[in-house]
Amino acid sequence: MANLKDHLGRPVVAVTGIGVVTSLGIGKADNWAALTSGKSGIHPITRFPIDHLNTQMAGTVDFLESSSKGAAALTYELAESAAREAIEEAGFSEDDFGGPLFLASPPVELDWHDRLALFEAADEETSYNRVLSAARRLNSPEVFESTQFGSIADRLAEKLGTTGLPITLSTACASGATAIQLGVEAIRRGECDRALSIGADGSATAEALIRFSLLSALSTNSGPPSKASKPFSKDRDGFVLAEGSAALVLESLESALARGAEVLGILRGCGEKSDDFHRTRSKPDGSPAIGAVKAALADAGLSEDEIGYVNAHGTSTPENDKMEYLSLSTVFGERIKSIPVSSNKSMIGHTLSAAGAIEAAFSLMTMREGVIPPTINYDNPDPAIDLDVVPNVKRVAQVNTVLSNSFGFGGQNTCLVMAREPV
């Protein structure tokens, strides 16, 4: 009989449903087949003009109905698609989930063409009155729902039948992992038997591309787009902007076993540490990332020797990959050379608010399937980063525990520890 309480006397949290959408496809099956075959979802941008842009590729999701309807509409459809897959797998009603919702999503704002359209539609002639007229139009329910942070979660809660006030959060690139952490903590506190945690991001807009370019964060690779994201390689030059979503149904192990649900994995630990060093750069000594990894291990009640695989943040930027190696080598010592450490972002790009959730989903699938996805485009190793990155080709291996890292801009770091089976 599995233990229903963890080492600190809290309810053990199980995963009973997983849903995924990325540029590789819709659903776990298509994504896993593409991911483990080393297929890239990075492609030339066709959604908006790219003339004069230094970066002309992305991992956009172009095959959904709302793909051309703006960031808010696409983020909603991504979130709903992943959520419905996860809820169906968990065996709950698709419109009466009965637990709280935690959604990680990008700060929603009007695209510039929408702003200009509002301005042009105003009746007044003077600029001042035009602005006032456009502002009045913002009071319409349609515009409100498409521009207000929290509106996506409100619509999801209504459609999916979640309970309580839905929580919308943004902790930069760690957002998806934070959404999972909030669900875990709600169950541990005894506030609910189950929770729905989602990370979704459909904000690969022209404006976002320009903003990240101004930060010198994006790859400017001029070769094949599929070769642009190259985590841990010596010639890495930035991340590739991408879109996607993942949803996890989290449930107390006691509840899952009582109703005969299939347990897909266990959320053993969550750790977070903030970094006030810089708005975009990481602290040079890596101490916040180190602290987040150690906090996750302590929360899980595991030692460094018990981690079998690391799903790296691995963005492919010169600084992040170096910092992540520093943090891992500090925590794990010489053993880090023998622990598989791969980056899903080499294939799907950086899905921003969704990244932590998508990578948690892939981590759970790695344990269930006994296959470690590769880090593709690893053709020029960086001698300063001595890691087993599972280069270019998947690896068959039994993995019982995973550390999944999410290190975000603004010093927002969240790490998750997952296990294949309950203790």
From TrEMBL:
Q: Where is the Ketosynthase family 3 (KS3) domain?
A: 10-420
Question: Which biological process annotations from GO are given for this protein?
Answer: fatty acid biosynthetic process
- Give UniProt keywords alphabetically: Transferase
Give me the Gene Ontology terms describing cellular component: cytosol
**Gene3D superfamilies given for it?**
3.40.47.10
Q: InterPro entries this protein is in?
A: Beta-ketoacyl_synthase (IPR000794), Ketoacyl_synth_AS (IPR018201), Ketoacyl_synth_C (IPR014031), Ketoacyl_synth_N (IPR014030), PKS_Beta-ketoAc_synthase_dom (IPR020841), Thiolase-like (IPR016039)
Give the top-rank taxon of the lineage listed in the UniProt record for this protein: Bacteria
Recorded metabolic or biological pathway in which this protein acts: Lipid metabolism; fatty acid biosynthesis
Q: Which PANTHER family match?
A: 3-OXOACYL-[ACYL-CARRIER-PROTEIN] SYNTHASE, MITOCHONDRIAL, POLYKETIDE SYNTHASE-RELATED
Homology family: Belongs to the thiolase-like superfamily. Beta-ketoacyl-ACP synthases family.
Name this protein carries in UniProt = Beta-ketoacyl-ACP synthase
Give the source species: Oryzicola mucosus
